[in-house]
Amino acid sequence: MITSTYIEGNSFLHKTDPRIKIIILVDLLVLLFVPIAIPVMIFIVVLFSMITAISIGFYRLLIPLKMVLPIVIFILLLTPPFYREGNSLFIVQGKIILTSDGLEQTLRLIMRFSGITVLFFMFFATTTINNFILALQWFRLPYRTALIITIALRYIPYMITVYSNIQDAHKLRITEESGKKLIRRFKRVFPSLVSVLIQSIKSIPTLAMALELRGIGLEIKRTQFNIIKFNKRILQLSIAGVILLMTIWIIRFL
Amino acid sequence: MPEKRNSSTMKNLPAFKIASLAILIAVTTVFTYIIRIPVAPTRGYINFGDVAIFFTAVTFGPITAFLAGGIGTAMADLFAGYAQWIPITFFAHGLQGLVIGLLLGKKINIQRLILGFLGATITMAGIYYITAGVMYGFGPALAEIPGNILQNIAGILIGVPLSGAVRRAYPPIRNYRW
Question: Does B176 sit within 8 Å of A197, measured CB to CB?
């Protein structure tokens, strides 16, 4: 089971029911997309960033924020030129660089994007994947879909190991080339991909049989839940069988 | 008496569909999250998620590609720390798989390949552009389009030959399409 997204803890957020967290997450996401005042948006983002920082630690909260930093820089650079209305705030050599409308839109987009990032991080850092799937099932996620996701999660570490082993085996057989060219790199990885895929696909029939033995996907119930009902025909045939046997036994003495 | 089954009858069983979807989701996640090739000029990476989607669409058909592509890449986003992209990724890559599967069909030729590539690129890059535009502006969202096109080029150039190579090495896979 991969647990890289979940951070162990005993905080208020960890103890909160995942279903409540899903509802709050969806509500806040909707709120970030409706046209609310910028100070309210900033308040929401700061409040939930602080709750997350208290629950899992300030430095851990920096991880997702660092990952979205390039996009935040893009927003800062590319949003103001698209909004020319409003008061001019920053002018260089007669050219308007930033207007009040541009500043408002830039702040709104930054708050929206970092808010979404913080909210999703908060949810998955304090909710195990098992609890997440159970909560989705409570929200009527079909059992088969939940089962598929659970099995896939079980197989991911196995496939990573298979890929790693195949890569190591290929490295022993193929001489190291100077892999600066992209095509050469692709060529080198291709045989490993074929091997990983064959190894993975070969396990499909075995897994299907294992699932059927557990009664999954069968139109009839599992053997232990199947009760054959008694009917008169069985009784008639049984009596007929006994009579036949007795008749043969009696004929033997005649 | 035990029922006789071969791969062509087995593919219609619910258990087989569950098993194949689970395995292909795991394959897509590993291809997206683990298998990457660095691109020197941009200092970025090409991930193999789109390779897995093209492979699944060609080999297993559009429905499997939709589910495996959508859920597999969404799970990779979750593990990579980009959880905010999960809903968008699910639809972008899921529909990309569905479009490839529908446009390529069972018999592949050069026209269908071009059509499949265009369809996949427009679907995936288009969904990402619109949703990213709503999320953080249409100007910054433009920066992602070249990367998404590159991903699709890698997907078709590696995914389709990969399907051929796997079919040759493991012939029963021909009957797994559903």
Answer: no
Residue A184 touches partner B, C-beta closer than 8 Å? no
User: In this predicted structure, what is the pLDDT of residue A237?
Assistant: 92
The predicted pLDDT at position A1 comes to 47
Kind of pairing between the strands at B36-39 and B44-47: antiparallel
User: Complex ipTM above 0.95?
Assistant: no
Nearest to A64 among B13, B39, B81 (CB): B81
| Averaged pLDDT of chain A | 87
User: Which sequence spans correspond to the domains of chain A?
Assistant: 12-137, 142-219
- For residue B170, the chain A residue with the least C-alpha distance is A198
CA angle (A43 as vertex; A37, A45 as ends), nearest 5: 105
- Put simply, whether A114 touches B (Cβ < 8 Å) is no
- pTM given for the model: 0.85
Contact A200 B19 (CB under 8 A): no
Give the gap in angstroms from C-alpha A169 to the nearest C-alpha of chain B: 16
Q: Range of B61's domain?
A: 9-173
User: Do residues B38 and B142 touch, judged by C-beta distance below 8 A?
Assistant: no
DSSP helix, strand, coil percent of chain A (3-state; round to 5): 70, 5, 25
pLDDT single digits (tens) A185-215: 778 889 999 999 999 999 999 999 899 888 8
Q: Is residue B1 part of a domain?
A: no
Chain A neighbors of B154, CB-CB under 8 A:
186
The Cβ of residue B120 has, within 10 Å, a number of other Cβ atoms equal to: 30
How close does chain A come to B86, measured CA to CA in Å?
A: 9
Q: Give me the number of domains chain B comprises.
A: 1
pLDDT along chain B (178 residues), means of 10: 57 89 96 79 74 95 95 91 90 96 89 94 94 88 89 92 94 87
CB A196 within 8 A of CB A166: yes
CATH (domain of B56): 1.10.1760.20
